[in-house]
Amino acid sequence: MQKAHDLKEYREELRESLDNDFLRTTLDNFAVAYRAGRANAFKGMDVRGLISDIAASKDAAAAEADALFAEFKANAEAAGIHVHFAKDGDEANAIIAKIAKDTGCKKIVKSKSMTAEETLLNHDLEAEGLEVTETDLGEWIIQLRHEGPSHMVMPAIHLSRFQVGDLFTEVTGKKQDSEIEKLVKVARRELRQKYIDADMGITGANFAVAETGGIGLVTNEGNARLVSTLPRVHVALMGIDKLLPKLHDALRILKVLPRNATGQQITSYVTWITGANECLAAEDGKKEIHYVVLDNGRSELVKDPLFSQVNRCVRCGACANVCPVYRLVGGHKMGHIYIGAIGLILTYFFHGKDKAKNLVQNCINCEACKDICAGGIDLPRLIKEIHARIMEEDGSPLPQKLLGTVLKNRKLFHTLLRTAKWGQKPVAEGDGFIRHLPMIFSKEHSFRALPAIAKTPFRDWWKENRPYVDKPKYRVALFSGCVQDFVYPEQMQAAVKVFADNDVEMDYPEAQSCCGLPVQMMGEMKASKDVAAQNLKAFNTDAYDYIITLCASCASHLKHNYPKLVMDKPGLKLKADAFSEKIIDYSSFVNDVLKVKKSDFNESGGKATYHAPCHLCRGLDVHDAPRQLIEKGGMEYVECAEEEVCCGFGGSFSMKFPELSSELLRKKLDNVEATGADVLLTDCPGCVMQLRGGLKKRGSWIKVRHVAEVLADNKK
Amino acid sequence: MSSKEALVEKFIEKAELVSAKVTTLANEDEAMEYVLDLCGKKEACQLLASGCGEAISDEAEALCDAKQKKVIAAPALKKELYKKLSAKAKKAGFECIDKGMREHLAGIDIGFTAAEYGVADTGTLMVDCPSEELRLATMVSEFHVCMLPKSSIRANTYAVEKMMLTRMRKTPNYMAFITGASRTADIERVLALGVHGPLELHILLLED
Ligand code: SF4
Ligand code: SF4
After folding, report:
1. B3-206, superfamily in CATH?
2. Which residues 108-147 of B are in CB contact (within 8 Å) with A?
3. A220 close contact with B: CB closer than 8 A
4. Of A348, A707, B35, B202, which is most buried by a Cβ count within 10 Å?
5. A536 vs A156, A273, A479, A694, B157, CA distance in Å?
6. Which string of DSSP letters, residue by residue, matches B148-193?
7. Average of pLDDT values for A549-557?
8. Residue A236's closest CA among A131, A346, A79, A113?
């Protein structure tokens, strides 16, 4: 649970997780095994198609939630089930407590329900003097430890067998060893007795099927079957987001849910309960069943044009499984009750701004969660939007506000960068790095060296050196982004050389400025919109076949976010759509459009490995082009482990959370060094900055370069 | 290979992937023999596997005393087959029951049931169990043995959707997809079978 009051306290909490070796190793192993397991489970299936079908069907269900609830309720009641509606968590808990009282129930067994976690149901029931036992093994363990879940599907993933052994020793009053098989058997025996004693069973529901009035439960342990069979009263608590029109919609989700959650084709048990079932412990032989359908802000959420997609979440937990930040710090620090990417969002809506305000900053925007989400939710975008909303309410911190103001004024911004060049002079080394960290950075930032500002920005070089192209094949505009303009102009120059040789006529619109992603990352939406509008005006889109950028982050931001940022300005929106269509990254342009050949380049030999920038591989879905270019460009490509995992840069993220950034970088560089390559290539100046700075600190022999530079060097 | 054979093969492959033990037999009589044989071979103190041998609390321990004899539960078997089974079981010294499952919550050795359908692409059994006795037989048994006629195997869940709906509309209904044994990976992500339900799932494919 999130307890920190401010970012400083939150960072201290994160530090604790970073120091927890067991947690780190477990999450690392899990992240790697999960990826392989999932890929295997989905082999031969059209995953994208399935996910977009799920998104469409969940959206449709959300749009008619009221009608679906009415249908569900009517069918359920006709089959002898009592249906309740709860507007918030307190009301849901009160309804359930009253059911217990009315039916004279004292002892309750529960099977896992995130919704009950959300309402803190156990807490309220215990306050009423009821005994509640969680029966899902992981849930039982954390209940005994008085903790919240640290993963949606594996709630006790943060604990070792030794911790569980000690816990069970306490619980049974007998010494336990730490063999997992045995611990599981102990739990089986202990919990069996609880089922026998219980008079009420509480479950969640994964599906609420309107056409039958029944529910579906997805479990591996089978506890939901016992919980819904043995006690004479059964209560199922579910959010309105679980409503689906047809059984078919549920079966479709079932194809993805277990595969995405744990890489299983299906869970051991899927239980379909329709109507008041036989119960031999009840006087009339019939079970008393209650459905409690919870709103708790969901119906408001569904009305929001942007956030309605949150309703598509099927609680598979995959967004945590792939999140590099979750992998470092675990669920207790990457969420309040719901964890991972979706947790950051739901925390804001279900548990409020105070619980969410630190959490939402802890997203590096790598898009891994978006890429894997079973409902196709644009999670990083929603996280940023919440960050922006919170800041709108609370006011931005001063330095951030300043940056926003500066970015909005291109001339001022560029003047500052030029002045910085003189300011750094006494500390800049000949090798392009700053020798000492400037005062604004504290010691935690020393995990990487920082680059010096270049002598001549690209825009000045361009004025003198713009190549003349006779009989152009393509007309393109260059978008440099600030880093390549002012820090690494040689990357742009390298691109210009190869383009000119391939009959590409180039233009560099001078009024272009920073793409605006950095301020958007900080949640400064207003500044981000202003910058977008400026850049759109700077480019005469119609005059070009393509607009090329060598920065993956710029490319993905320009392509995907610009049309959204100017949505409320119809004139600009049209322009943004056309602009977005023309955006292309360097590797795709050179490999797929220019179709350069191996014979165009000299063999320089040497082994090169590759780091796939998040915004290239996931943001733009570009995978093969850069790797093919490395081979064509005369180098031997050696694959690096976890090539598509974030390097930890994330722009302002690495400033806010240097400890996390440095850990991500360490892993990345370990993998890179293990390849034995002499050169590390990538497609994004931000990544170059992070990777080069880290390798410099390590004193490594490996050179970091943009793919464009190698091609320019080896061009025949 | 005919499409029917292909389905059967796929079903077997997928079921075995989740550690179900699949055997092909000629008919129900052979299935019955299989169950008797399995019950005989099961360890004398068969409950050991499910936790009685562990250091458990006194309350949980008391539950074990309730069980004295090996028990086969077959609450939904056809009358005739059940008669035959129960006679043979008695001879072998096992208790055979078709009701009163709640008296045996410490555990029964074998739950002997039949599935309505099999789903090939995941190796899943579809067992409709509105009767509480049948439901418990599939849950509190150490080994669940389930018969499935080969002709009842379908390609995927969409192919059983209509059948499911028909059954669900005759409320009350309680239906299960069962795929492999009860499992957990909640401690250190290490897979352990039989956490609440059966430790083993035996699927008997019957020729028809
Ligand atoms: S964008 Fe990346 S860092 Fe942010 S929540 Fe998603 S996976 Fe985690
Ligand atoms: S947001 Fe997507 S990935 Fe995350 S739990 Fe929900 S459905 Fe799964």
Report:
1. NagB/RpiA/CoA transferase-like (3.40.50.10420)
2. 121-124, 130-133, 135-136, 139
3. yes
4. A707
5. 49, 55, 11, 35, 50
6. EEGGGEESSGGGGHHHHHHHHHSSSEEEEEE-SS-EE-TTTT--EE
7. 96
8. A113
The residues spanned by each domain of chain A are 7-28+317-394, 64-299, 421-592, 598-714
Ligand nearest to the CA of A364: 1
State the Cα torsion B203-A181-A221-A169 to the nearest 10°: 150
Interval A559-613: pLDDT, tens? 999 999 999 998 899 999 999 999 999 999 999 999 999 999 999 888 999 999 9
- Residue A238 contacts by C-beta under 8 Å, 6 or more apart in sequence? A115, A204, A205, A208, A215, A291, A292, A293, A294
Question: Residue A74: is its pLDDT beyond 60?
Answer: yes
Nearest CB neighbour to A192, from listed B105, B133, B175? B105
Q: How far is the CA of A278 from the centre of ligand 1 (A)?
A: 46
Going by the DSSP 8-state scheme, the letter that residue A452 receives in this structure is P
Judged by CB atoms closer than 8 Å, whether chains meet at B195 and A190 is answered as no
Q: Any idea which of A287-296, A318-327, A384-393, A412-421 has the lowest mean pLDDT?
A: A412-421
Which residue shows structure tokens 């990826």? A35
A52: number of Cβ within 10 Å: 13
Higher pLDDT, B54 or B36: B36
Mean pLDDT over A415-443 rounds to 68
ipTM score for this prediction: 0.93
* Ligand 2 pocket member A114 (CB < 6 A): no
A598-714 adopts what CATH topology?
Answer: Rossmann fold (3.40.50)
Q: How far apart are CA A202 and CA A288, in angstroms?
A: 12
CATH number, domain A421-592: 1.20.1050
Supply the residue whose CA is at minimum distance from atom 8 of ligand 1. Answer: A323
CB pairs under 8 A between A and B: 223
Name residue A584's beta-bridge partners. Answer: A548
- CB < 8 Å to B102, chain A: 230, 280-281
C-beta atoms of B169 and A193 within 8 A: no
Provide the pLDDT for residue B66. Answer: 56
> Residues A280, B202, B112, B51: what is their CA dihedral angle, to the nearest 10 degrees?
-50
pLDDT band for position B50 (cuts 50, 70, 90):
low
pTM of the model: 0.91
Mean pLDDT of A652-660: 89
Residue nearest to atom 2 of ligand 1 (CA): A366
A500 touches chain B (CB under 8 A): no
Which of A543-547, A706-710, B41-45 shows the lowest mean pLDDT across its residues? B41-45
Best of A34, A134, A192, A232 to disrupt the B interface (most B CBs within 10 Å) is: A192
Note the pLDDT tens digit of each residue in A176-190. 989 999 999 999 989
Residue spans per domain, chain B: 3-206
Superfamily classification of domain A64-299: NagB/RpiA/CoA transferase-like (3.40.50.10420)
